[in-house]
Amino acid sequence: MEDVGRHNAVDKIAGWMVLNNIPAHDKIFYTTGRLTSEMVIKTVMMGIPILVSRSGFTAWGVELARQAGLTLIGRARGKRFIALAGEERIEFDTEPGQVDDEPEKGETQRECAGGMSATRASLTEDRMLGCVLAGGQSRRMGGGDKSLLDLGGTTMLAMVVDRLKHQVADIVLNANGDPQRFARFGLPVVADPVGDYAGPLAGVLAGLTYAAENRPDITHVVSVAGDTPFFFPVGLVKRMCASVPLSEPVIALASSSAKLHPVFALWPVSLRQDLHDWLNTGQSGKVLAFVDRHDSVEVSFDIDPETGLDPFFFNANKPEDLTTVREALSHSTT
Questions:
Q1: What is the pLDDT of residues 27-86, one digit of tens each?
Q2: Distance of CA 201 to the CA centre of its chain
Q3: By C-alpha distance, which of 72, 70, 37, 81 is closest to 260?
Q4: Per DSSP, which regions of 68-160 are E strands?
Q5: Average pLDDT of the chain to the nearest whole number
Q6: Residues 85, 89, 92, 97, CA torsion sign
Q7: Bridge partners of 251?
Q8: For residue 327, which of 28, 196, 264, 315 sits 20 to 30 Å off, Cα-Cα?
Q9: Coil, helix or strand for 37?
């Protein structure tokens, strides 16, 4: 097939199989991208019983695969893989527990055929740099810095910083323009290193670049949105750290209510150069377009018990959203 988008390529393969009367029941579908719900649905509709990827997966994709009876295999590399659904189709030529690990750089990650073991080196919060993406143009809010708008004695940015500061070693703010408008926070302000308001990926690159040039002790950057004040006050970074290996550059993406929120993510500093090259060569500025080049995992979170709001999906983009924030703050203080 010609070089087209991944989902379009799947559709072309499906059409080619139909036009040429190619049976699907004895085929295995292999992709290098994440195992999303869309990929699962397309594979099931094609009638192919097994879907395999060298990359990560989403919780909703795994759930759909289980419901549909699809065999779903992720992180397939060498002799190792993770069987996520439909394990009954898999026949092992040796006992899974006897498959040797393939250590990288002296680390102790332990994954074997058929699943992941619990023993592996873990990341810790003291190696994390928080990067608050506060540099949007806020067009739907009428322009300006919406994260600095008054909410009755506080701001969205202050709330975000307060919830993040105890979970990471340090915090930087990503914003363009005059950094003095953020002076009250006493935090470094880093501008997008590429483009002009090039989107969240440019902000992520700003955080990765700051870590690489100023904090050699930092291995990962946690990006969060500056207009989403209700992300979990505890557990966000800890859970993301626990979801990825220390020995491989795996991106962790937050999700809630069966939706991915890729702005809330854990990024290995080792991906800095690849992201720089990606943006500088005019590739897509969409976060997931870059994520699909690498291994990734999804970390799912529940509705915030304090506010009843989705901790990631709710963000203040319009003036009426500020009313929702003020009402939630009022309820939390009564």
A1: 999 988 778 888 899 999 999 999 998 877 777 788 899 999 999 998 787 777 888 888
A2: 12
A3: 37
A4: 71-77, 80-85, 111-112, 115-116, 128-133
A5: 79
A6: positive
A7: 296
A8: 264
A9: helix
Q: Using alpha carbons, select from 32, 40, 24, 33 the residue that is nearest to residue 86.
A: 40
Taking the C-alpha atoms of residue 29 and residue 66, their distance in angstroms, rounded to an integer, is 16
10 Å CB burial of residue 4 (0-12, 13-18, 19+) is exposed
Structure tokens at 138: 């806020």
Q: Quick one: which H or E segment has residue 264?
A: strand 259-268
Q: Render pLDDT for 94-137 as a digit per residue (tens, 0 to 9).
A: 665 555 544 443 333 323 333 333 334 578 889 999 999 986 55
Asked if 264 and 312 count as a contact pair (C-beta separation under 8 A), the reply is: yes
Polymer length in residues for the chain: 334
Question: What one-letter code names the amino acid at 279?
Answer: L
What residues does 70 pair with on adjacent strands? Answer: none
Helix axes 200-214, 272-280, angle to 10 degrees: 140
pLDDT of residue 184: 92
Reading the block at residue 71, the tokens are: 């065999």
Q: What is the average pLDDT across 213-242?
A: 85
DSSP state of 280: H
Tell me the helices (H) and strands (E) count for the chain, helix number first. 9, 13
3-state helix, strand, coil in the chain (%, to 5): 35, 20, 45
Of the chain, the end-to-end C-alpha distance in Å amounts to 61
Parallel/antiparallel/unpaired status of strands 50-53 and 28-31: parallel
Q: How far apart are CA 20 and CA 304, in angstroms?
A: 51
- 209 residue type, one letter: T
**How far apart, in whole angstroms, are the C-alpha atoms of residue 49 and residue 132?**
42
What tokens appear for 225 in the block?
């949105």
Answer for the pair 54, 75: CB distance below 8 angstroms, yes or no.
yes
- Token pair, residue 277, equals 């090259």
